[in-house]
Amino acid sequence: MSAHTGLAARKKAAREAAFLRRELAHRSAGAQAEHLIRWLSERPGETVAGYMPMRSEIDPLPAMAAAAKTGRVGVPVIEAAGRPLRFREWTPGCALEKGHFGADVPVAGVWVVPRIVIVPLVAFDRHGHRLGYGGGFYDRTLELLRKAGPVAAVGFAFAAQEAEEIPIEETDQPLDLIITESGIVVPS
């Protein structure tokens, strides 16, 4: 077994375990976005990228709506496999359509360049590593945004999605902090 095959197998096993933990947390969630709303409220006017929740992902929409009152909010648009994401401006109640991979995206709107990116994830660890869905979209996007200037990558997840250690590779972009329904985790 090559090192790459071993890493892929470890990521697959970690992803499966994290999906199960997230599903269980989703069933018992209350005020999920409270800490995220508070954190974003301390950064009024910033351009924020959120996401449209799918499956059992924690829901950032209340925090996105709050952020849209003082600044621009965008949601990711996948233009093609292997490419970075672009972010189309989103406002509460705007017209949506299904994009690639089934996520809702605004039908129209300007493109925005975020300085805060709320990142969905399958699992995270205390070192700021995240396990995504395996497409590399956020890693490519964060790398590109960070070359242009400072960007805060904020993982948003249920506390139950925390793992002891996430297997990483060179292309994985770290999170600057993780916000859960239980509080804020600052990576060590």
Automatic annotation (TrEMBL):
Listed EC numbers: 6.3.3.2
Which GO terms fall under molecular function for this chain's record? 5-formyltetrahydrofolate cyclo-ligase activity; ATP binding; metal ion binding
Which positions bind substrate?
M52, E57
Report residues binding ATP.
R130, L131, G132, Y133, G134, G135, G136, F137, Y138
The protein's superkingdom reads Bacteria
Family per similarity comment: Belongs to the 5-formyltetrahydrofolate cyclo-ligase family.
Give the record's keywords alphabetically.
Answer: ATP-binding, Ligase, Magnesium, Metal-binding, Nucleotide-binding
Q: What is this protein called?
A: 5-formyltetrahydrofolate cyclo-ligase
**Required co-factors:** Mg(2+)
GO biological process, any: tetrahydrofolate interconversion
